[in-house]
Amino acid sequence: MKKFVYSLQRVLTLREKREELLRQEMSRLIFKRNQHDHVKFYFEKKLSDEYEKQRTQTSFLVADRIQLDHHLSETRGQIYHQKILIAEYETKIEKKRLEILENRKSIRTLERLKERKWDQYQYETLIDERKTMDEIANRAVVVGRHFDFA
Questions:
Q1: Backbone φ and ψ of 76, nearest 5°
Q2: Average pLDDT estimate for 131-150
């Protein structure tokens, strides 16, 4: 009796490996996005602290005021830059998620096909076994008749 061989097993294995790689890439993207989110949070906290400092301090020299305004402007720019980077990573993450979903669909299709092929193999094996049993039974009957006539 022949052994069950799924002709698309290599394709299925490659798709599963690809899914694993896609998930690793997505994890890296999420990690980088989170890093930028932490940096953005740091700058927002820094900006909040500087605003609080400005609010509580009553006497400012003009030079100090100009320096603080420049520093606040830089901090706002850094926050804006982090928001842009986060949005870019969100877009990349979404694309990667869609790739994973498409890959998962093709894997499911191949798995269903494999199950059908397995069911077909089991059915054919059962039929072959029945034929073999029928042949054995027929031979026993023929051999029994042969001995009856002798």
A1: -60, -40
A2: 73
